[in-house]
Amino acid sequence: MGCTVFEHRGDVRSLKQGNSLRNRRGISPVIATIILSAVVITIGGAVWSYAQSAATVIADDYVDGTFSLINEVTERFVVEHAGYDSTGKILSTWVYNYGAVSVTVDVYISGAATGSTLNTVVPIGTLTLIQITGLDIPAGGTIAIKVHSRCGNNVYSHYYWPAA
Amino acid sequence: MSIHIITGRQRRGISTILGVLIFVGIMFTAYIPMLLVMKQADTIYTQKKLESERLDELRSAESVTVYTYPTGASAPYNLTVTVVNKGVSFIDVIRVWINDTYHSVNIPPILPSEEKKIGSFNANPENGKNYYVKIATKNGNTFGASDSIRYDNGWEAQGFFIYVSITGKGTCDVELWSNPHGSTYISTTKVYLGGGSTVFTSFVVPSPTVLNKNYIVELKKGSSYIDQDKVSIDWPDGPAYIWAFLEG
Q1: ipTM score of the complex?
Q2: Contact A53, B26 (CB under 8 A)
Q3: Domain topology for A76-161
Q4: What pLDDT, in 10s, does the model give residues A98-147?
Q5: What are the tens digits of pLDDT across the range A38-91?
Q6: Interface of A with B (CB under 8 A)
Q7: Which of A25, A28, B84, B162 sits most deeply, having the most CB atoms within 10 A of its CB?
């Protein structure tokens, strides 16, 4: 193949060495190719694996965020009725969930009396009674009712207690 | 030397091919599926948002008038509830409230302009107490009867009214006559409808008797009568107030 090393005819050692080199030269491209390919495959596989897991994590996070947003925009509930029992000092509020997702709500009372009830689940399509005890509403008093969902939506209502 | 060059070029070619294969692999197994999943989530979000907006539109379009009156001697503690769907879409009534007690109802949807008796419901009345009736729809609306009914050893209406809805233009007079027409003139109200709108007015009428329960509500523009509606207050066999609708 016209390699200058083999032109040294006087030196046997050089020839032997040349033969050895020739042999190594025949193997080294294959080994180098294998090594290079192995390195490329290893690094590429690692990058591939990382990219795939990163993409999965990103996609999962995005989907979770989107579904959380869907819950926020699709939940619908209303204070259908409120009533006060002056004997037991209990305010009863009936919350109706007419949306497409179950809601978890906190009810806050302010105005003529204050109180709250937290963490009540209102399943889809159901009317749920939520009671707040220990409320002393004076005759003629008006209270504001705020129902806050865990997704961040609020529904307001008010209740007028005409007489004891 | 040329061997080295050729061998190196070959190795570069293999690594380039492998690199391309890995890049394409990453594109098709990680990036593109990720984009597709995100796009699908966006599509579901848009769809759900649209459904919710439609539900809100349906809800805001609901309009119902609720009448309530004693059921009669057969059920002296019961109140009969009748509704008129004044909206443009059907409504599903799911509950009737009498004060703080509700009764679940299961009736077919009420079509636009349809009047339907929801049923007769036991109010468990106590003497000297007022009873407020309202209905709840599947879409989360509540509509109450315009007046309460009092119980004091029997049902008592808080008053007797004729509510009038007038649609049209200009200035008109709304006249109330007892029926048959012309027998007794009762009252006139002037209404201004502007360039085209609907306004409401009402008349207070005396407690109805067998001979005195039918009325004619007429719409008069200038000296000519435009429209009339015949109504009757059938208390205690019907509501203590009734709607009349006029167009001019």
Answers
A1: 0.74
A2: no
A3: Immunoglobulin-like (2.60.40)
A4: 998 999 999 999 988 899 999 999 999 999 999 999 988 888 889 999 99
A5: 888 899 889 989 999 999 999 999 999 999 999 999 999 999 999 999 899 999
A6: 1-3, 25, 29, 32-33, 36-37, 40-41, 44-45, 47-48, 51-52, 54-56, 58-59, 62-63, 66-67, 69-70, 73-74, 76-78, 80-81, 83, 92, 94, 96, 98-100, 127
A7: B162
